[in-house]
Design a protein that fits this description.
219 residues, GTP-binding, seven-stranded mixed beta sheet, GTP cyclohydrolase-2, alpha/beta, RibA-like_sf, globular, riboflavin biosynthesis
């Protein structure tokens, strides 16, 4: 038997917390990163941190990027996620050092791929992203950033310059013991297909998107 049965016939306790599993070089079109893989034993998710250059403990430029298959892989214009990931990877390379933590299990702000697609179908009928989630009986934002904080701690990072427009990410890191020295805007020019979505993020989810002012005033 190989199902964690101990010598006394009792099951060994299940692992908890975040475990570093592997560190592999990852050459990309942006530059050569180290892909450090983690297992989140509490949630069962596999996570990865892309580390560029030699990072120190303080004021590290980072991005906590929520998994978005449609935006990151398929180039969806429904959101700006793919462009934000691209901009973040370019930024840490330009900086000479930094970390992009790619957070799996965050699809659709934590409601999963099928939940997100159902919400998108409702948005096509006129609901905004908040209304769509609620109409499906799903939370507006179910993401948890505890695993990101544990990954940063494992990397020896104490304080960060956080590339994000979302104040909740900053609050979550601080709550989990990571100092946020600066919140760095990651502003992507809107397009016809995502302007309504971005306005909703600004008006109902408190995202800091000052670049929409010109679009709003001219619309």
């Amino acid at each position: 038997m190989t199902d964690n049965i101990g010598v006394l016939g009792k099951k060994a306790p299940q692992r908890t917390g975040v475990e570093r599993v592997v560190n592999a070089p990852l050459p990309t079109v942006y530059g050569k990163f180290q892909a450090i893989g983690y297992m989140d034993h509490d949630r069962g998710d596999e996570q990865v941190a892309l580390v560029y250059g030699e990072i120190g403990p303080d004021d590290v430029l980072i991005r906590l990027h929520s998994e978005c298959l449609t935006g990151d892989a398929f180039g969806s214009q429904h959101c700006e996620c793919g462009d934000q990931l691209d901009a973040a990877l370019r930024a840490v390379v330009s900086e000479g050092a930094g970390v992009v933590v790619y957070l799996r299990g965050h699809e659709g702000r934590g409601i999963g791929l099928l939940g997100k697609l159902r919400a998108m179908a409702l948005q096509a009928e006129g609901l905004d992203t908040v209304e769509a989630n609620l109409a499906l009986g799903l939370p507006v934002d179910a993401r948890d950033y505890g695993v990101a904080a544990r990954i940063l701690e494992d990397l020896g990072v104490r304080s960060v310059r956080l590339m994000s427009n979302n104040p909740r990410k900053r609050e979550a890191l601080v709550d989990h013991g990571i100092e946020v020295a600066e919140q760095v805007p990651l502003l992507i020019p809107p397009c016809e297909n995502n302007i309504t979505y971005l306005r909703t993020k600004r008006e109902r989810l408190d995202h800091h998107l000052p670049h929409l002012d010109a679009v709003v005033s001219s619309s």
